[in-house]
Amino acid sequence: MVSRRYFPVSENQSRLDLFIDRMVSQRACLDYAIRQTAGMTGPVFELGLGNGRTYHHLVQHMDGRPVYVFERAVASHPDSTPPEDHVILGDVRDTLPASVERFGASASLIHADLGGHNREKNDKFARFVSPLIEPLLAPGGLMVSSDRMYFEGLTEMPLPEGAVEGRCFIYRR
Amino acid sequence: MVSRRYFPVSENQSRLDLFIDRMVSQRACLDYAIRQTAGMTGPVFELGLGNGRTYHHLVQHMDGRPVYVFERAVASHPDSTPPEDHVILGDVRDTLPASVERFGASASLIHADLGGHNREKNDKFARFVSPLIEPLLAPGGLMVSSDRMYFEGLTEMPLPEGAVEGRCFIYRR
Questions:
Q1: What is the rounded CA–CA span in Å between residue A78 and residue B124?
Q2: Are residues A140 and A172 in contact, defined by beta-carbon separation less than 8 angstroms?
Q3: Going residue by residue through chain B (173 aa), what tens digit of pLDDT does each one get?
Q4: Confidence band for A1, pLDDT divided at 50, 70 and 90
Q5: What pairing do the DSSP bridges indicate for beta strands B107-112 and B137-145?
Q6: Mean pLDDT of A33-53
Q7: What does A58-118 look like in DSSP terms, one character per residue?
Q8: Which carries the bigger pLDDT value, residue A67 or residue A75?
Q9: In the 8-state DSSP scheme, what is residue A46?
Q10: 8 Å CB contact between A34 and A109
């Protein structure tokens, strides 16, 4: 019933099952990526704040690296609202290219959960935004995404324990 | 994996951790409650549709019992939108009392995830809505809630495996 929209889904999975898999995978991948990049000092970029749960998790587990949030309009939970000078406000189509000038290829970790309900739209956006994200990542840096991305020079990594195949992706420069 | 976390919330839990615990507990309690009430034929009530993920899960795992959704305004994912004649539209302050007349004490399973971000508000609402829910449940029926409820004649049950203490509650008539 839902299998046409997601990959790869067993037929008796509910949308609740899928959602839990996605959240659990996201956490497993972020925890892994934080550990893997622990020696790096470059900033962390969160693309899309939403409710702020993932931002809260990133900040809570971060080792002093600054976490910048790219968002069109901040509407997060009060507990998970970043300080103003760590918000890069605007459309990522503009703010990502502008950030290449500001930060260069310095990010130690970039996380994106850009996906909406529509799988085709997500994929189209992932294709569009991948080349805007790629030049921001430092050598050795990791990119964690809920959607498959389309990078030229990054390598897709195996998922850590606890993550569900197809629900999360990790790329390394 | 989740069993080590207990209520009250440990200080190094992020909002993402809490949210995952809540969703995982909700699913564990619903699966358990569906199995426990499998011999019953009375309707299932979902209080609050939201995005529709839990409704989708209930319908997918239900054994022919009708699932009615109580909601002020349907705004769910297209895949998880109930048929019109299974939506009880309006404020639960009105629709729950009206449903006692229509259905009597016949519900085999009632699920509520009414909670917003504000704990105090949730608790206040749980106190208000508990006596409106209680007369709808059939003898032997179960009530699953993400918030602690305040029932006169129902018994709180131990949580099934996989559910995290304090993230979900089960009551039996």
A1: 20
A2: yes
A3: 333 333 445 668 899 999 999 999 999 999 999 999 999 999 999 998 888 899 999 999 998 899 999 999 888 787 788 999 999 999 999 999 999 999 999 999 999 987 677 788 889 999 999 999 999 999 999 999 999 999 999 999 999 999 999 999 999 99
A4: very low
A5: parallel
A6: 93
A7: HHHH-SS--EEEEESS----GGGPPPGGGEEES-HHHHHHHHHHHH-S-EEEEEE----S-
A8: A67
A9: E
A10: yes
In 3D space, the residue among A97, A90, A87, A94 whose CA is nearest the CA of residue A136 turns out to be A97
- Which domains are delineated in chain A? 13-172 (3.40.50.150)
Q: Which of B5, B16, B25, B113 to mutate to test the interface with A (most CBs of A within 10 A)?
A: B16
**Gyration radius (Cα) of chain B, Å:** 15
CA distance A115 to chain B (A): 14
DSSP three-state, residue A39: coil
Residues within 8 A of B (CB atoms), A 68-97 only: 77-80
Question: A-contacting residues of B 123-152, CB under 8 Å?
Answer: none
The Cβ of residue B4 has, within 10 Å, a number of other Cβ atoms equal to: 7
Could you tell me the CA-to-CA distances from B140 to A26, A105, B33, B40, B154 in Å, in that order? 39, 62, 11, 9, 10
CA distance A168 to A25: 6
So what's the pLDDT on residue B100? 96
Q: How confident is the model at residue A54 (pLDDT cuts 50, 70, 90)?
A: very high
Chain B residue whose CA is closest to A5: B79
**pLDDT score at B75:** 80
Q: Which helix (H) or strand (E) holds B119?
A: helix B119-133
As a whole number of angstroms, the distance between CA B30 and CA B88 comes to 21
- Report whether pLDDT(A2) > 70: no
**Six-digit token pair at A120?**
């085709």
The nearest CA of chain A is from the CA of B155 a distance in Å of 27
Residue A62 token pair: 């971060």
